[in-house]
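G., the chain you wanted modeled:
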Amino acid sequence: DMVILAHEIVCEYPAKNKKEKITSTYVDYGDDEIYTAISKTVGLPAAIAAKLILTGELTLKGAYIPTHPVIYTKVLEELKTVGINFREKIEEL
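Predicted structure as tokens:
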């Protein structure tokens, strides 16, 4: 299998009279029928978050969405160690 993640965001900064486009992409292929690309890109972030909770590295209390910086920065750091890393490009418009 194959996973393609692509995000394109246009940001406007009126105070700076600036506009930019941020593009993030990631492509992955499964290793075989068990270690699929979808299992890596869905299962690993959830497993990493669970590990962070169990080891006490994630100390937030209550329910939080995964876009909270305390969560996603730690998860993204660990995903990089297993080869899951977005390519990011910033263009001024």
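The mean pLDDT is 93.

Shout if anything looks off.
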